[in-house]
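Format is chain and fold; as here:
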Amino acid sequence: MEAGRWADGYPRSLGNRGFAAIAGERVPVAGRVSMDLLCLDVSALPRELVRLGEDVELIGPSVPLDELASTAGTISYEILTGLSPRLRREYRE
């Protein structure tokens, strides 16, 4: 395990600082990033967007890699190379 990362490679430094997106709407990381879990504050989202099984965007159009890396105090290359092989990836042209 690299310093500052947990099992899936999401930087611990993004606890209470990072963000994700649900249906294109940004939501903040709430609390610490733990080994296999992070919590998101969805309280500002409309109820219909908060559903069990809803996809969460951690890197993508609503969560630009460079912005996420800057928030984590690193560079985009370090974020990408630190991601675990067990994560689902979706590549688009």
Notes: Helices lie at 65-72, 76-82.
